[in-house]
Every structure is written in structure tokens, then in C-alpha cells.
């Protein structure tokens, strides 16, 4: 059991989003409401590396107004990382080091804000701390623009990317429609989504009727068929005078080979993708001869706090809040979930799920969300997606630019004599 | 002289912007206030092609509320085109055709909304109509995201792209700063601007102090020096832990050859598919080994009405308004200009300049706007740029998405017996 008054440790993991700091804000503001239970709040410098290296930012040093500003600030305010701990089955030294650091700083509450890989880390920390006789409450706060976490209805971070992609698609389509006769006929927007096509699917929200752009969506869930693709592009240009395509970075051929892109791998062994849009553009030019343009939003899409979904921001904040409440309630090894109420009006509540059901599992776009020809989304997908982009949560502006939080991020003095020997090779990963 | 009551013709030309429709709105609403002078208002379908083909949209059919919505709608509501009329010195047949169409529809006011090439067209039409004894008032309304029109202090369309690029750079930089230790070290954003680096320069607004990103800006005005570039990237990564680069699509080597060669192959034998950002990314990886990401906003930047500069929208509208007023005043062969008042607070007024001083001239980023090392902007540039991005002009949203005008665009019956034989080859230009 967690002792009556202990400290809390919060860390951000994996690719950051435009609303992960809203979850941090939810954690911090809620924890501050319980000084009888939670004494000090620390944040890991660069995610879990902060725990391994005993680099803890002291949240007490931050003003309430700076913490409030986290609600409207994109990126990871304390730094994040891509660093996968060793498999607990082969070595628990890293987990043990984390628990040692937690013990040295009297940490009883661990809040880990990340995706599927981080859920696994969070689970292992809960298990190892138990084994070591220093049980802590380890709660996972969902975060991923990819929306691929299982159990939860959606993941904080996704709704804002969905909104950005839907708006950008609608806007760029108006541009191309204006110019189609004498200029660009085919426009390709490449969006993120390595294995799951949720972000690409959200472009479908841009359309208000069947013939509206985007005319084609390419999902990683659907094998790329060159002939079918070219036929549909040609038909669309013939009929509409132009063709807008939104392609997921993870689109591959039937055999899994990428359409384009490097074969680099990131820290988790995932292929680092990119270059789908120029590859498709080249194909269109070579085979059909159409003038084309392409765009790749890359990090712009996941940091576009200026047009975040108010629903997403609320859910991100509430997930942080709920994590603290669950923790104070004695829960551990769970992830906060967002649950959709089964009624025509969208309503959501918070729940939780055991991390064992979450870790290392991916949720893909279901078959009945994708239209029969494989190039669009169904009404069912629209019904799922539309509530997630509702509301505009604008950041404050000064002098024409959004004002984002800049924290002090002061480290607390180390208490352990030994530093931990991180393998350098694992810090310069793909 | 224009007859007491005549009709007006408005057309959009060249690449569209997020605020060109605000100029259209300014023209239409102002013209509608003068029914004694301007009887009917027409808009060309796909720009000047609408005049050549006698395809005129009847603005009378549009509701006042739809016209009002043009203020917040990106793209070209009547269609635009890339079509350069033949040199008047070799053939005036196209100009004569346009005047014939104007005469058939009793058009005495011609408003042409475009960039440098269109200024030339507008001037020729004024001259040829004079020669043909059917003088019309031809007024050019400036429009270009490139900000390369001479005489005018700035061009409607630019301020909004500048704002989008500055915000996107600030947001993406927070993302990369969070992840720099274990993930991306170098991020490259490719922006538009073939010959003039105004858009790239505007990324410099994202910084609040010297070490802030963007750490490097690449201008078309400054020859690309590979060694110098790589040294600065390496120094920046060493010092800041990451490096954010904003590169203009028009960056070239000293001899004018492009950075991204279409025949280059990458390490994997893939054809290098154009694009300055991927080419620079490949260079960084090959020479310095840093993990990188890159983005190319392409049309997203020039259609991003969701984050338009309120100042830009006001100027675009006012330019349309002023065009009508100048026209009613008997002016012709002029372009409306935006003039900066010489006082510390930014104030602007409208003026005009003879088209002969505008047509086919480009305004580049001056040397004293670019920092000594060639990779940044000076205080002088900041002082020029900052006023142009002031204010947020948000469009109305329904169901989480911006609501953009959808006009009826009904053609008026043709009056001429002959159709005009457009050369098909010139309709598929670059």
C-alpha cells in the first residue's frame, strides 16, 4: 500500500501531441488539490530517462499560471523520449533502477503519459515494484495521435490531429478546385499513421457529400493496388476535373513492402516511413501525366495546437485528472479510458482498464469503417469521428502569435550515489 | 470615357490564396453600393479564360449572405487559372476577343485580381481597349502569397501565409525540442517562394530570442553553400540539441542549379523525388548522420484560412473596395497599393500605382533583411513582417469544421456568335 503522504512522478513518453500537456496540467492541478496525500510533484526530464538518470523536475517551482498555460501548449513541456526498456523477462535492472529512484524520492504515485509501448513499461514498473516490496500506484494516461490504443473509445491527441487534417483537406481542396483547369489536377496529402489509418480516415470529415474531396483515402489497413489506384484517379479527374488524395504514411503493397521511404527503424524497431506522397505523385505523373502537387504535414499535424479540438483538449485534461483520482483510490496497473455513451448525442465518461489488456496491442480501423472500394469512409466511421473534432480550443495570442508555456524545469538534487549506465546506442536510435 | 451606367467584370488569376475571396467580397459589396453607376456584376469563370470564352458568372444570383461569406473562404470562389496571354507585340487577338466580350456585355469596369503576370494582362487590356475605341477602366487588385509585387508595401495573401508559417514553425519546434534527445535532431520545413524568400523569412517571427528556432532559414536570394550549411547544422545541434530549418522551395546553388535534382538516387537506389526538404534531409543524414524529419506544407500554407491574419484579410477586402472606388473615379491601368505609414505604430492606407511600374517586376527580400551569415532575418525584417500577421480572423465553424461559401456560379447567356479558339497546349501549362 502507498503510504499516507508520498510524492508523485509524472513523465511523458513517445511522440508528443498538441494536447499531452493538457493531461500534464490535469495531473498537476488535481494532485495539488490533495496535499494531504500527495506532497511533492516531480516530472521526468525526457520521459522515463528522467527516472533512470534521477533527473526530476520540481513542479513546486512552477507558477500556477504557467501550469494553467500547459492546457494550450503543444509539445512535451518536460521532454519526452523514444526509449524502450529491456524486456523484463531478460533483465529487470532498468525497472529496478527506476524503483530505486522512486524510493529515494519517496514516490508512491507514478503517472505515465504515452501510447502502447509505454503502457507496457507502466505495467512492468507496477509489477517490479510489487516484487521489490515497494509497491507504487502506476497509472497510464493514454496519449497517441494514432488512436491505436485498444479498449478506450479514443486517445487524447487524436481528435486534434483529425480536426487539423479534416480542415487542411477541406481548405487545400478549395485551392485545387479553383485551379484545376489549367494547373494541378491531382493533390496528395501524406498524413501520419504507421499501421492504423485513423488519421487518414479523418480526412473524410472534410466532405459534405459523396463527390466532395477527398476523393480517395489510402489506409495502411488496405493493401495498395497500383492498377486500381490509377483507375480511380483517372475516373475522378475525368468526372470532377481534379482528384484529392489523402494517404497514410503506412500504406504498403500486399506483401508489406512500402510504396516509398527509407528502411530506417526507430527505437522500437518500427520502420521510419515517409515519402509516400512524392512516390504517389511520381506514379500519377508517369502513368497518367497529370500535373500534381503534394504535401506532407509531418510534425505540423501533431503540434497544431492553434486548431486543437476542444473535445480532445477536455478529454486530455480529464484523463490526467482521473489518473490522479484513480491513484488516490488505490488503483494501479491500469490505464484511464474514454468511454462513449450509447446514445445519439455524443457524451463521454472516463473509465479504466487493466494495463494487461492494453500493452502492446494496436487498434486498427475496422473493415466496416472503410467503404467498399477501399478508398473512403462509411457513415459508421463518420459517426465515430465527427464528435471527436467538436469545438475550437484557441490558444491565447500576443502580437499575432500563440503564447505557449515556458516552464522553469528546475531539477531537484540527486539522492542516489550511483548514476545509471544507460547504453549510449539505445539513445541514438532510429 | 466609361458610360454613365455599365457592368463590371471581376476575375481571379494565378495561384489562389486564403484571402483572395475577401478582395472579391470587397469588389462586389462596394459595386453593389453604386447601382446608379454599376448595373450588373459578373465574374470570370476560371479567371481570364472566362472572358475569352464568354463564360460569365452572374453575381446577381448570389445572396448577400453568401457574398459576405467570401470574406472567410479560401481558394478562388469563381475559379482561377494559369494562362498567360500572348505578347501583345506579336498578337493582340486575345486582347481583342476580351474587349469584344466586354462590349457585348456592356462591361465598363474590369477588376483583375492577381500577381505580376496578371498586372501585365490588365495593363494590356487597358491599352487595347483604348486602341479599339472602347475604353474601359482596368484596375488591378494585388494578390500573391509570394509578396513579390513591387511598389505596394505588401500583397494581400502574404500576411496569412506568414502567420501560418510562423505559427507552424513555433509549434513544430516545441515538438522537436521535446524529443531531441532520443529522436529527431534536425527538422526541415519546406515553404513556397520560388524566387523571393518572403515566406521563408516569415518563419523568423517564430523566435522570441536569438537561440530560438528556427535556427536556420534558407532563402532563394542566398546561394546554397553545402559546407557552410552543414557546419551551421552541426554547430546548432551541438549547442541546442536540435536544429530547425525553414527552407524556401526556390533555394539553389550559386550557379542556379536546384538542390533537389530529379535524377538523383538515394542510398537505397530510390529516385530522389524532388523537393528541397527531402533533399536537405538526405544530405544531413548522409553527411552528419542525424535523425531527421521534414515537412512540406505546399497548398496547405496558402489555403489555411482557419488561421488567417486579420490584418491581411482587412487589406484584401479594402483593396477590392478601393479598386471599385478608383474605377468610379475614372482611373485605369493602375494597381491598388498598400502603403505603410512612417510611424512606430503600424498604420496602413491605400494608394495606387501605374501598372507600367508593376507589370513583370519582382520584389526580393532586401539584403539588409537577411542576417550576416545568410541564415536568419534582421530586426529590420522583423519590424517589417510583424505587423502583417496581427490579429486572428477565424472563420465560422459548424460541427467542428469551418463553413466556407459555396456560390451558385450561374453563367449568363452568351451574346457572341463565335466561340474563341483557345490553344489547348496553353491550357496545360506548368
Short description:
Chain A has 430 residues and is an alpha/beta fold. The first copy, chain A, is built from twelve helices and 13 strands.
Summarize this structure as a short list of keywords or feature phrases.
12 helices; 7-stranded mixed β-sheet; Rossmann fold; 430 residues; homodimer; 4-stranded parallel β-sheet
Describe this structure in words.
2 copies of one chain form a homodimer. The model of chain A has no long low-confidence stretch (mean pLDDT 93). Chain A is elongated and about 70 Å long. In chain A, helix 4 (93-104) crosses helix 5 (116-131). Helices cover 32% and strands 16% of the residues of chain A. Chain A is an alpha/beta fold. In chain A, strands 3-2-1-4-5-10-11 form a 7-stranded mixed sheet, with helices on both faces. In chain A, strands 7-8-6-9 form a 4-stranded parallel sheet, with helices on both faces. In chain A, strands 12-13 form a two-stranded antiparallel sheet. At the A-B interface, helix 6, helix 9, strand 9, helix 10 and strand 13 of A face helix 6, strand 9, helix 10 and strand 13 of B.
Number of helical elements of chain A: 12
Q: Assign a percent range to the helix content of chain A.
A: 25-40%
What characterizes the major β-sheet of chain A? 7 strands, mixed
Low-confidence stretches of chain A: none
Rg of chain A (C-alpha, Å): 23 Å
CATH topology description of the largest domain in chain A? Rossmann fold
What oligomeric state do the depicted chains represent?
homodimer
What is the string of SSEs of chain A from the N terminus onward?
EHEHEHHEHEHEHEHEHEHHEEHEE
Question: In total, how many beta strands of chain A?
Answer: 13
- End-to-end distance of chain A, in Å? 39 Å
Q: Based on CA inertia axes, which overall geometry of chain A fits? A: elongated
Give the integer mean of the pLDDT values of chain A.
93
**How many structural domains are formed by the residues of chain A?**
2
Label the structural class of chain A. Answer: alpha/beta
CATH architecture of the largest domain in chain A: 3-Layer(aba) Sandwich
Name of the CATH class of the largest domain in chain A: Alpha Beta
Amino acid at each position: 500500500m502507498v503510504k499516507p503522504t508520498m510524492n508523485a512522478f509524472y513523465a511523458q513518453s513517445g511522440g508528443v501531441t498538441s494536447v499531452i500537456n493538457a493531461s500534464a496540467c490535469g495531473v498537476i492541478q488535481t494532485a495539488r488539490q490533495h496535499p494531504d496525500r500527495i506532497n511533492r510533484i516531480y516530472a521526468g526530464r525526457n520521459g522515463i530517462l528522467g527516472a533512470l538518470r534521477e533527473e526530476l523536475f520540481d513542479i513546486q517551482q512552477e507558477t500556477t499560471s504557467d501550469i494553467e498555460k500547459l492546457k494550450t501548449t503543444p509539445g512535451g513541456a518536460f521532454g519526452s523520449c523514444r526509449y524502450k526498456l529491456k524486456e523484463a523477462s531478460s533483465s529487470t535492472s532498468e525497472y529496478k533502477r527506476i524503483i530505486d529512484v522512486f524510493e529515494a524520492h519517496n514516490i508512491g504515485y507514478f503517472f505515465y503519459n504515452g501510447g502502447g509501448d509505454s503502457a507496457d513499461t507502466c505495467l512492468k514498473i507496477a509489477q517490479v515494484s510489487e516484487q521489490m516490496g515497494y509497491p507504487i500506484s502506476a497509472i497510464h494516461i493514454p496519449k497517441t495521435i494514432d488512436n491505436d490504443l485498444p479498449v478506450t473509445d479514443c486517445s487524447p491527441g487524436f481528435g486534434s490531429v483529425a480536426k487539423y487534417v479534416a480542415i487542411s483537406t477541406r481548405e487545400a481542396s478549395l485551392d485545387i478546385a479553383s485551379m484545376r483547369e489549367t494547373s494541378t489536377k491531382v493533390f496528395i496529402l501524406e498524413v501520419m499513421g504507421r499501421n492504423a489509418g485513423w488519421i487518414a480516415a479523418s480526412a473524410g470529415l472534410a466532405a459534405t457529400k459523396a463527390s466532395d474531396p477527398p476523393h480517395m483515402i489510402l489506409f495502411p489497413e488496405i493493401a495498395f493496388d497500383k492498377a486500381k489506384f490509377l483507375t480511380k484517379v483517372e475516373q475522378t479527374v475525368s468526372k470532377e476535373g481534379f482528384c484529392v488524395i489523402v494517404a497514410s504514411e503506412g500504406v504498403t503493397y500486399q506483401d508489406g513492402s512500402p510504396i516509398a521511404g527509407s528502411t530506417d527503424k526507430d527505437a522500437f524497431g518500427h520502420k521510419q516511413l515517409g515519402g509516400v506522397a512524392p512516390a504517389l505523385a511520381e506514379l500519377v505523373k508517369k502513368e497518367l501525366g497529370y500535373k500534381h502537387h503534394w504535401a506532407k504535414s509531418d510534425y505540423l499535424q501533431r503540434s497544431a495546437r492553434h486548431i486543437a479540438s476542444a473535445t480532445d483538449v477536455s478529454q486530455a485534461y480529464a484523463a490526467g485528472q482521473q489518473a490522479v483520482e484513480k491513484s488516490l483510490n488505490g488503483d494501479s496497473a491500469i490505464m484511464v479510458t474514454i468511454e462513449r455513451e450509447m446514445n445519439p448525442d455524443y457524451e463521454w465518461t472516463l473509465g479504466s482498464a487493466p494495463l494487461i489488456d492494453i500493452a502492446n496491442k494496436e487498434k486498427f480501423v475496422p473493415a466496416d469503417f472503410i467503404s467498399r472500394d477501399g478508398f473512403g469512409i462509411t457513415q459508421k466511421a463518420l459517426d465515430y469521428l465527427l464528435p471527436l473534432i467538436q469545438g475550437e480550443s484557441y490558444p491565447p495570442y500576443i502580437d499575432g502569435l500563440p503564447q505557449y508555456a515556458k516552464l522553469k524545469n528546475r531539477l531537484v538534487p540527486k539522492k542516489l550515489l550511483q548514476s545509471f549506465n544507460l547504453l549510449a546506442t539505445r539513445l541514438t536510435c532510429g
